[in-house]
Design goal:
2 domains; Rossmann fold; alpha/beta; homotetramer; four-stranded antiparallel beta sheet; 33% helix; Alpha-Beta Plaits; 8 helices
Amino acid sequence: MAQNKHVYRLTIACPDRVGIVGKVSNFIAMYGGNITEANHHLDSDAGWFFMRTEIEAASLPFDAAQFRTAFEPIAREFDMRWSIHDSHNKKRVVLLASHEAHCVHDLLYRWQAGELEGDIVGIVANHEKLREMAGWYGVPFFYIPVNKDNKAAAFAEYERQINALNVDVIVLARYMQIMPPALCEQYLGRMINIHHSFLPSFVGAKPYHQAFTRGVKLIGATCHYVTQDLDEGPIIEQDVIRVSHKHNIEDLQRLGKDVERNVLARGLRYHLEDRVMIHGNKTVVLLEG
Amino acid sequence: MAQNKHVYRLTIACPDRVGIVGKVSNFIAMYGGNITEANHHLDSDAGWFFMRTEIEAASLPFDAAQFRTAFEPIAREFDMRWSIHDSHNKKRVVLLASHEAHCVHDLLYRWQAGELEGDIVGIVANHEKLREMAGWYGVPFFYIPVNKDNKAAAFAEYERQINALNVDVIVLARYMQIMPPALCEQYLGRMINIHHSFLPSFVGAKPYHQAFTRGVKLIGATCHYVTQDLDEGPIIEQDVIRVSHKHNIEDLQRLGKDVERNVLARGLRYHLEDRVMIHGNKTVVLLEG
Amino acid sequence: MAQNKHVYRLTIACPDRVGIVGKVSNFIAMYGGNITEANHHLDSDAGWFFMRTEIEAASLPFDAAQFRTAFEPIAREFDMRWSIHDSHNKKRVVLLASHEAHCVHDLLYRWQAGELEGDIVGIVANHEKLREMAGWYGVPFFYIPVNKDNKAAAFAEYERQINALNVDVIVLARYMQIMPPALCEQYLGRMINIHHSFLPSFVGAKPYHQAFTRGVKLIGATCHYVTQDLDEGPIIEQDVIRVSHKHNIEDLQRLGKDVERNVLARGLRYHLEDRVMIHGNKTVVLLEG
Amino acid sequence: MAQNKHVYRLTIACPDRVGIVGKVSNFIAMYGGNITEANHHLDSDAGWFFMRTEIEAASLPFDAAQFRTAFEPIAREFDMRWSIHDSHNKKRVVLLASHEAHCVHDLLYRWQAGELEGDIVGIVANHEKLREMAGWYGVPFFYIPVNKDNKAAAFAEYERQINALNVDVIVLARYMQIMPPALCEQYLGRMINIHHSFLPSFVGAKPYHQAFTRGVKLIGATCHYVTQDLDEGPIIEQDVIRVSHKHNIEDLQRLGKDVERNVLARGLRYHLEDRVMIHGNKTVVLLEG
């Protein structure tokens, strides 16, 4: 499990130039850094280079802040967008939920089982239904109802509560409300949604009904970053499951739940382990496998 | 292999009512018919019933025409849309092709290998490129170029040639031209297309380019009946393959080819074996497995 | 959801003969029975016929016991192995567990969410670890430790407890102990195991270690009925997930968990809905989709 | 397509030590080499490091031989098993075949379509059946029958013919004969087989019959290097397809063919593009995607 080792994660995106890997590798080697995982991606068409390196923390003579200082000149030389992340600083995650339980439940279970790096610090929901489950997992639960008359006030309250929790990541775990633009902007690249279709098919409401009507032979789910354009943000992960004429809408919903929760769990895991780099409206996902 | 046994295939679609299966089963049993495959589908929501039965030809005392006569009263009683098909009357198939070889090649190979019931009686193409391949398989090749100036005349020629071949099924094997409405209408439910995306995503031109731009994590292919609405006809079969940021458009095209040819071959096989029943804009596909 | 409709499920396996379907269909039609789902399978090679029919309970003038009496002559005529099951008589399920939580947790969740027909009436475990989870779901928890010195006595206690719970189905939810032959015999066709490999690969202990050593590119899980031959019983359901050289044993275990829980949940659902018919050492699984 | 760019491919396997990537990267950068694809794999448990780098040939001031000389000191310093391969030196491939056509046909098609880097320089078969197909693709065909009385002589003739063709890779395209140990040894890591099961399940003869008898719910195919231990060599690629009780052995064979040919084509492509590194009895496959 990633969370059991203490590592620094260096992620870099920059225009491709001769010598990047050598420069970075030498920097790490110079300080005796022990690389535990390394991933590169060269986008030859775009002339852009991506890199993710995990370095054993104990092998380096400094902490993440000092790493930052020491590495800054190299980063500047190559025009890098970059970050260094200490795996001991777990990302703080808030789940936004409604009455659908399967995704929330699955994330809580995986978190408790140690499968997800990161801390689930709260659940904010517009229904009371999941309060008991949150309690059992020891996660604070905040009930903020939303209806068409109180939307502005309600979302101000969401925003206040999320900020009070000091979160790094917002997960819309089948939350089903359109987020206000300002919040999308504030958490750009840090707000993750699960949409219950294989995007870009069936954007918007009731995707299983749309899928049923169109008569598709596979249904899917999509985990993506939220932007102001509904269901149009960068895709992190997708998957599908086979269906047939024998399945009615309730069957699609039931079968789809398993895909949704797995896709969301994978997408969130990638994000928490700093494996996802956003480039334009697409993602580079540097997996261990 | 289906084509090695001589069977009649009875396909029925009708409003659901008590007693259908009993009536049909008794009819077959009364004449000593030996059922070799049986498939039902009840669409409870729509109140519609679908049935496909394979009966060993030698076990019945009459041919398909006589079956038709004898069964007609039952069909009328239950308002059936129905057909009886003799597996020895192989469907005549024409492939419409362009310069892309993979689907044409795959169908020719499967046909020669005995995997496809039906006879490929001709290839009509708007490029010369596949003439040699057609020749090797002993299939007549007709070259009818299409350009923006000769469209009406060219399609009249396609129509004439297709009708001259007396075909039961038209397969657009990556043909890439929009078919004229009259031809769509004439061969409704008998013209099959392979679209190189997971519909309804990426309708129309250059779907792999669209998929690349959107950054999807799976690409797919869709085999469907052609209607006058581009890429909107009833879906017979679909499949997908996983891709990532590492794949450029050429990679998507290469990987997609394998999906396209398998999906088209499956969809066509289902059609040739009378396994596909169109209902509204959807299909019921009654598989042996 | 199946559990929301009140139906009788008639399952039949018998030597294939002309007239079976007609006879059964007429029987149901004669009493005005409304068929809500129908599935046939003809095994032509073995000359054996399988049939599963769901009939709306309210459409019939009698209960399951009376159905049994009325149908018995037909069953005898065709040498049927058969059963009629009232969906309101939910099967009583006991989970046998150890310290692995993922399968137990998943089944409890699905049960509570109404996805599983059947009642989980107890968890019997050889570790204390899952007691709290059982409590939260309101399921009685029985701790019966097993070690090499107390095996006979411990299993006598398991047997006593299971019988006291009056169960219809035993689920080995990653229980990891070899069951005594007498218990296997008593619950033949009613004891379900999840094995964490794609059987018949990697029978026995530590299948992920075996898979890692062999360097396979896919790992899987198998849900099967338990017989006295370890991991050799009839397979109900299997699935796989792609892995690579990048995954170590811990990764295989983590990725495999998702496959295990989904495969077990599917297999158990099929059993609870009377969709699985055992024939020799194989299963016929008559799915709705 | 890989074969359209002129690149050198540097592949390295060595014990993991601080500084490898830096040293190699600096070497390439020093000569102005333009990296077009880069892949690393660190096996932390085994302490072993794998690396594959594609460098644009025109960006380097020397050819592959000179690269070899210049790089040798670094290779020695880090105890590397390594190679440098010029993509213009296409590997020479011989197909060994029997009467099954689907894999041979698929490879010939892909080769002609430019999907496979490498040259198919001959087909050696123990049946005459594929001679015509070979002829159509312009590939020399050698018929060497094998029976239980002439085995030693026949295999001596195979060996002579293969060596005369001066091949780099032997592909057993459903050849179905056990290769003599000496030939296995001579072409160790360069002889590729497709086995028609998901190994290690169903080693040896008639795997579809074995799969049918066991009642598995998925069937598969495995592409692996041949060693003297039958079906036990390092696995390059595997895949599966879902089956059910409805499929008889002929169905399994038909469905399996599609998996076999795709798995073999992928495995061979990886090998031809120097993406497969053998380590012990396992492979590291460094994919572009």
